[in-house]
């Protein structure tokens, strides 16, 4: 549990999740506490030992994500009957999001991604959305996450397209260095290649050093070089400084 003046007001447009997570503070009437979902043990020495999670919250690329929030947004789509979101390993052996849905009709799941992008930040949009006829269940009647089919990792791999100008060439080179990959095309997804917020800062810093400027927030909205290119500002030229002091006339 956490509390204090910096506590958030709640989840955006998710009143049910807000009610579950933000509860009255028994120590300070009128204030609230947030259920973090962290499971800890208090030792006799007064230390807290972290044991894991008791909910569906995960950490993806440095962002703490509530899986039920993504599931709730999927269920707002008219075609989705049931939804479950979990983590899988991508081609770079990094944790990534995969959503499994049961639909009411034969709908292209690619449209689901576009719909989610209107209500969720880019890092919360699943890399894969897989349609199933039914979910595998455990003996306790819960979805058996371990029995869900693995996503087609290659399905997210894009056809390589070379940079079209000097800025895209510069960006491709920076991404290759920062992400540690051999070749980056203009349609490759920064986060699918293993990028995270820290690597994004490194990329923006390298870009600034080369004389160009990028608002880091745009990377989450436009995670490919082709999408990002229009927002790369013109070279930053510093004003020349006159180091010669003027002589005073008498």
How are the strands ordered across the major sheet? 1-3-2
> What is CATH's topology name of the domain at 51-156?
GMP Synthetase, Chain A, domain 3
Poorly predicted sequence stretches spanning 5 or more consecutive residues: 238-250
β-sheet strand percentage: 15-25%
Q: Give the distance, in angstroms, between the N- and C-terminal Cα atoms.
A: 72 Å
What's the CATH class of the domain at 51-156, please?
Alpha Beta
CATH superfamily of the domain at 51-156: ANL, C-terminal domain
Continuous helix count: 7
Number of strands: 10
Largest β sheet strand count, sense and barrel closure: 3 strands, antiparallel
Average pLDDT over all residues: 82
CATH architecture type of the domain at 51-156: 2-Layer Sandwich
Percent helix range:
10-25%
Structural class of the secondary elements? alpha+beta
Order of helices and strands: EHEEEEEEHEEHEHHHH
Give the oligomer, counting copies of the same chain as homo and different chains as hetero: single chain
């Amino acid at each position: 549990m956490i509390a204090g003046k910096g506590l958030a007001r709640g989840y955006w447009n998710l009143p049910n999740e807000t009610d579950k997570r933000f509860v009255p503070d028994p120590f300070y009437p009128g204030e609230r506490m947030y259920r973090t979902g962290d499971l800890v043990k208090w030792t006799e020495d007064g230390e807290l030992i972290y044991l894991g999670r008791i909910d569906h919250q995960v950490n993806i690329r440095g962002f703490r994500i509530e899986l039920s929030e993504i599931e709730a947004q999927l269920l707002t789509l008219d075609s989705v009957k049931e939804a479950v979101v979990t983590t899988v390993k991508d081609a770079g052996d990094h944790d990534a999001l995969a959503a499994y849905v049961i639909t009411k009709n034969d709908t292209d799941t690619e449209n689901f991604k576009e719909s989610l992008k209107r209500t969720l930040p880019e890092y919360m949009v699943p890399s894969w959305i897989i349609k199933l006829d039914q979910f595998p269940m455990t003996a306790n009647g819960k979805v058996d996450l371990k029995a869900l089919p693995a996503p087609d990792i290659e399905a997210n791999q894009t056809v390589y397209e070379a940079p079209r100008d000097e800025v895209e060439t510069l960006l491709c080179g920076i991404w290759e260095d920062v992400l540690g990959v051999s070749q980056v095309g203009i349609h490759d997804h920064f986060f699918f290649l293993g990028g995270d917020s820290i690597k994004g800062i490194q990329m923006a810093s390298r870009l600034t050093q080369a004389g160009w400027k990028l608002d880091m927030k745009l990377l989450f909205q436009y995670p490919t070089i082709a999408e990002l290119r229009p927002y790369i500002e013109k070279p930053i030229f510093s004003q020349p400084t006159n180091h010669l002091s003027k002589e005073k006339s008498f």
